[in-house]
Amino acid sequence: MDLQYGLELVGTFVFAISGALAIRELEHDMFGAGFTGFITAIGGGTLRDILLDSYPLVWIGDVVFLYAILAGILAAFTFTNFLSRLRKTFFLFDTLGIAFFTVLGVEKALSLGMRPEIAAIMGMFTAVMGGVIRDTLTNQIPILFRKEVYASACLAGAIVYLILDHLEIARDLNLLISIVVIIVIRLLSMKYKLSLPQLK
Amino acid sequence: MDLQYGLELVGTFVFAISGALAIRELEHDMFGAGFTGFITAIGGGTLRDILLDSYPLVWIGDVVFLYAILAGILAAFTFTNFLSRLRKTFFLFDTLGIAFFTVLGVEKALSLGMRPEIAAIMGMFTAVMGGVIRDTLTNQIPILFRKEVYASACLAGAIVYLILDHLEIARDLNLLISIVVIIVIRLLSMKYKLSLPQLK
Amino acid sequence: MDLQYGLELVGTFVFAISGALAIRELEHDMFGAGFTGFITAIGGGTLRDILLDSYPLVWIGDVVFLYAILAGILAAFTFTNFLSRLRKTFFLFDTLGIAFFTVLGVEKALSLGMRPEIAAIMGMFTAVMGGVIRDTLTNQIPILFRKEVYASACLAGAIVYLILDHLEIARDLNLLISIVVIIVIRLLSMKYKLSLPQLK
């Protein structure tokens, strides 16, 4: 439980950094950057909890999450150049972030008594909807709709978690496998420029 | 009740198809198409139920709706060309869909004890907000803001339903009249290229 | 309490006018204009209440707000040219509106037992998110992300209110000071074209 809480905080921190840096090229001011950092960090989990009627929202019930976000935004402001040069590192961080948030979202939905189909959707939403809301507010095409394998990797990982959970595999092992599945799908699809087919 | 449930499922199925096909020209992949199909199908009813604090959401409480959406997305994937050529058929389906969802939304709000003014807004939201959210996420101007008579036809039909309901007309007859009103307004406005005046 | 209620109604009325006029250049029809007027007037408070799980929503529980919005939309339709020429007057109205809604949002969050950090965010959201949702739906960059000092003035005013509240200053005086702080920051930043620094 403590490990999960710690990882959730780290994920929130990382998402706040990536959100704040995401609009660097858009010539927004620091307030705009902080705002997108905040939205990116809380968006997915907030949407999930509103859909599931699970209150209070995580960041409203536990103020530590707000401070993790604030720390992420300040880090983005202070080390803008340094962090921007770390593109590869960031890609890894973001991939880790979506992998972990997917599994967190699945587990939260299951703990609220949801069916596995709903839990899979909630896992994916937790991971990607913060970025989708950020991109929509800043008038960009959400990453979800670009060619990359992104949200589909999360959905695949969520389904793997649910299958292994159904097979009653130990939770820790399941967490590890599902997270690795998401990371591997994302890394391989980037390396070999794989994408899903288009409708024609 | 069974008829209503069946029609709601058919409406959900049709909206999922039209949502999945809507982004065909945007070069999104199959995952993106499925995602927009899903959002289009659930968006309006989900927004309505969140605003009215009515939980569980329809598609979360009854998994059959999820499978209707999945079937719609798979139909869009399998018969893409065939369905795309059916423009006129689709226009009719969409018109039927918004007409039916408008009345469903009004009835749901009334059944939750809402005033008629709120019920009219909820009817319109149920019909059009799924498409509005889809268009916003994909960076397009929502159909609501284009020149066509679209959401205003839904609002007119909702008001007709509420007036007839106030006059204590039999529900089945009222359903039929209100749905026909919406369809006729939409068809006539398309045929004669009618539109509401602009502000100047 | 009566003064607060009256001011909230006036604020809602003014926001509906400014929302309806905001899309004048976009060649939308009257329905689209009315829709954006509605969204602008209810958006911020609705988002706040959904995040805080505070139901019924203000405009659903008290139909008077709906009529204030309708009056604002009709005023925008009737006096379009006259109101559009009043740019400066409108800027003042909007500034008054965001100042007052910020403080209302802070007070509502506090009255629901929220921590000051959450109350500050809710104050800012109440003031600016209606406009953000409107701009997002109409495919424009939200004012929040433009160079002007806008949402940050609200956040500053919310923090001033919370500090003075912590110091147990009389509520009426606190209301007045916080609202004046927001107005002065916004007016000065417009007059001297001040803006926050960008990330680089």
UniProtKB/TrEMBL annotation, chains A, B, C:
Q: What is its main location?
A: membrane
Sorted keywords for this record are: Cell membrane, Membrane, Transmembrane, Transmembrane helix
Q: Which InterPro entries match?
A: Gly_transporter (IPR005115)
Residues in Glycine transporter domain copies: 7-79, 92-165
Q: What residues form the membrane-spanning segments? A: 6-23, 30-51, 57-77, 89-106, 118-137, 149-167, 173-190
What compartments host this protein? Cell membrane
Q: How does it sit in the membrane?
A: Multi-pass membrane protein
Q: Name one GO cellular component term.
A: plasma membrane
- One short Pfam name that applies is Gly_transporter
Q: Which family does it belong to?
A: Belongs to the UPF0126 family.
PANTHER family, sorted: INNER MEMBRANE PROTEIN, UPF0126 INNER MEMBRANE PROTEIN YADS-RELATED
Protein's name in the database: Putative membrane protein YeiH
